[in-house]
Design brief:
- The longest helix has 28 residues, at 21-48.
- The protein has helices at 2-11, 13-17, 21-48, 51-58, 78-87, 89-100, 112-117, 123-129, 183-194, 213-227, 238-251, 254-262, 279-294, 315-321, 334-347, 354-363, 368-385, 391-397, 399-406, 411-422, 426-430, 436-452, 457-463, 469-485, 487-501; strands at 62-66, 70-75, 105-110, 149-150, 203-206, 228-229, 233-237, 266-270, 298-303, 325-328.
- The two termini are 48 Å apart.
- Helix 3 crosses helix 6 and helix 9 packs parallel to helix 10.
- The strands form three sheets. The chain has a five-stranded parallel beta sheet, with helices on both faces. The protein has a three-stranded mixed beta sheet with strand order 1-2-3, sandwiched between helices.
- Strand 1 (62-66) and strand 2 (70-75) form a beta hairpin.
- By secondary structure, it is an alpha/beta fold.
- The chain binds adenosine-5'-diphosphate and magnesium ion.
- Magnesium ion binds at residues 213-214, 270.
Amino acid sequence: MGETAQRSDAGKPGTVESVAPSQVAEGAALESEDDKAWQKILAALRETVQAEQYETWFRRSAVVRCDDKDLVLAVQNSFSRDWMRNYYLSALESAARSALGSPRRVLIEVDPERVLAAAPPPAAEVAATAPPSPNGGPGRAAPAAPGPRRIGALGTDRLVQGSDIGLNPKYTFDNFVVGPCNRFAHAAAMGTAESPGKAYNPLFLHGNVGLGKTHLLQSTCHAMLETWEDLRILFLSCETFVNHFIGALENGDIQKFRNKYRNVDVLVVDDIHLLANKERTQEEFFHTFNTLYNAGKQIILSSDSPPKEIPTLQERLVSRFKWGLVTEMVTPCYETRMAILKRKSRARGQELPDDVARLLAERIDTNIRELEGATTKLLGYASLSGEPITPELAREALDDVFTVRRGEPTMEEILSVITAHYNVKVTDLQSRKRTNAVAYPRQIAMYLARSITRHSLEEIGGYFGGRDHSTVLYAVDKIKRLCAEDERCREVVGGLLDDLRAPSR
Ligand code: ADP
Ligand code: MG
């Protein structure tokens, strides 16, 4: 940032005032050239970036400078900067290349004043470009009215009264390790914090336990509180919502309950799957949802399964949950687990040596909470015993964790047993190839994964080249049937299962 900060000072209005009139004219002319170049780049971006993304990120950026070498942009805050650097740098570079005929290095800096001075389009105009909402209410991008103002200061104590105990200060975007397993959810959460009520509404995150849903939800709240003034956020677990509702019914103050839930700018409900089998609460939540949504207020939900798989969830709620963005968080890959281990141990004052981190990342592969718990336990064990942290010490300290794990093979182990038995390559299993020599081992692998791991159908599909859950379901059913009908198949599958469960693994 240092390199661009200087240049941005040179471009601020205050600096221009102090130079000679001829230079002002020249500066103004240059500025308009920059603007023209930026308009051309924006036009190119509109071709490649989805309309909603474009509205959210590019319309509210301003050009600082565009010369032969660099394109320097200003954005409103660090979320936008990080977001654009992470997700749109190459789109910006190719748009600049195609619009200007030669490549530019793209630099992005935070300068809210410049963005405001560049007069972003009025909210009404933005809303008009949004698709109509399915219920005939305001468009999906309808701004919360009256729009909250941005601030720069921390304000995490400003949750609406009645929220769950408050936010965990550690659950921030900064402390969240991003990997392929959660990249999209993370990006969507940042986008929501940046444009509450506009970008993704509702935002629906789902995934198994311990994969960071609550962390992301709270990061979004922190970010919104840091960014927006007077934003009223109600953060609560679904259980609290249910209890409040039941209490209100019992006490006959349902109106008070409604006033409270329907007068916020952002409603965040963690673990919404707990609405399963609670018909009256679902009914109430449906009306709360509608009121907030129609007023352009942001709704953020997390769940352990996608909307359609929440048992007994009313169809009208399922469909509403899908209006905005539904995104899954899956089990982190090995590299992400390593990065999380390093980050968590560093935060506790002692980074794990590589060989120890590798051991933990290999053995604990389904749940980040367990990974974190193991790190804490190991560090505590090492400091009490005064011994250096080695793989041996880790095995000793985490014996119980590892023993439990022995019962559940990893996907990598399943793949390696299958590739050895059928003499196929992992890349074949993950490819689109459908010849029997590849498809059959793939189906057996899916069946094994479903039988002996806790992975969801979607997650298993993910390991096999991003196949969807119905493909996995088909494979599981087919192998189940074959095993019932054919002794040879039963034997092979039994042998593979024995290999996977052997304690020598
Ligand atoms: P969930 O709500 O999905 O059950 P949590 O958000 O409670 O999971 O996460 C469990 C623990 O793992 C928390 O301590 C959280 O900080 C940590 N965690 C999860 N994902 C990440 C991540 N990507 N980076 C850092 N920590 C994470
Ligand atoms: Mg949670």
